[in-house]
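Pasting two entries for a bug report.
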Amino acid sequence: MSKMSKLFDQDNMFFAIMGVLFDLIILNVLTLLCCLPVVTAGASFTAMHSVLWRMVRHEETYVARQFFDSFKRNLKQSLLPWLAFLLAAIVLVVDGMLARSMGSMRGPLMACVAFMGLVIIAIAQYFFPLLSRYENPTSETLKNATKLALGFFPAHLVHAGDFGRVRRAVCAVFHIYDSAADFDGRHVAAILLRVDLQLDFPPYRR
């Protein structure tokens, strides 16, 4: 095969990387658009992770079609948990504002609010990937998400701190779009793939 033929071969590394990047751009746009009504954000995150599962496992992926299939399938089950996470976040924000005006108790109270916020974010970060992956009652999915969040909590602290600074620095140097949903989705999917055989999850996979 000539060099010119290899250059335009759709199986070469360049076209493979560009294809993945294009799929991720489409996935991010769909996720953001479906988050705009706010109440549908949980279903949007679930659909995003459903597509990311296929991408991480190198399965055949049709981003838009699979995204909306998962969105419709999980809308009802994801609605109440998402609203609960949202309500908890609002309560913590209010608590944080009150804690700032507590004088000498400000430091400990702010630390408690920050800790609870990290716990809720960690649980939510696992809940929606699990919902996209396993056929399970909501209570079981929440229990599994809590186990994973607490089990990997030190990793979440590192990820929230050091990686955030590294990511912003890299994006600034290379002038690339900082797609947090993109990275976090693949990060969680990779962790779940690693622990898939270690936890007692049901065998029913979507």
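Entry 2 (this is the one that rendered wrong in the viewer):
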Amino acid sequence: MEKIKVAVIGAGGKMGTRTSNNLVTKFPDKFDVKLVETFPPAVERIEKERGLKVTPVDEALAFADVVIFAVPDTLIKKLSAEYVPMLKPGTVFLILDPAAAVAKELTLRDDCTFGVAHPCHPSYFKWQKEEEAYQDRFGGEGGHQDIVMSCIQGDEEKFKLAAKICISNKEPNVNPKDNGKMSLGHVRDLHSGTSHYSPRGPGGI
């Protein structure tokens, strides 16, 4: 099976580190991953502490079928305006901040697919037995972490590539009768929680 080509932009940040570490170490047979980072201390951590290679952004975007945009929320508008025009046609572009899509801060293109994934912390779909896990409001430190996904615009079949990055065992269970609401399919995500996948969320996200 051909690997999915992935670029993680902001691979030295908190979410970028978690996501890229999981893709590289847990699923090397499924994903071919390029890491992009420009902040010098983060580049050093990737190369010296994690033993991984940092790829120039233009090279990574030319390579990737799916781009995970793990940059700080405050930089989504600025950096998406710079990087989205560099995408090859047909690329799936996944952001981690739904507010940016609602606020229309994300640069879009008609020939690419855009989606959003966001963790729920504390867990929304799974009961946490331990108090520490129940009170985990930062995400993924004390307990299970859920994730919700939605397609912003584009090819919903291609968006399933992004869903594969957030799950580890099977295709998302999409019910065509959901009418844009989250499906009832439960699968495992990269943070060992539950993933709910929606082909098209309320209000188009």
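Dev reply: Rendering is fixed now. As a check, the viewer should reflect this: The CA atoms of residues 25 and 31 lie 10 Å apart.
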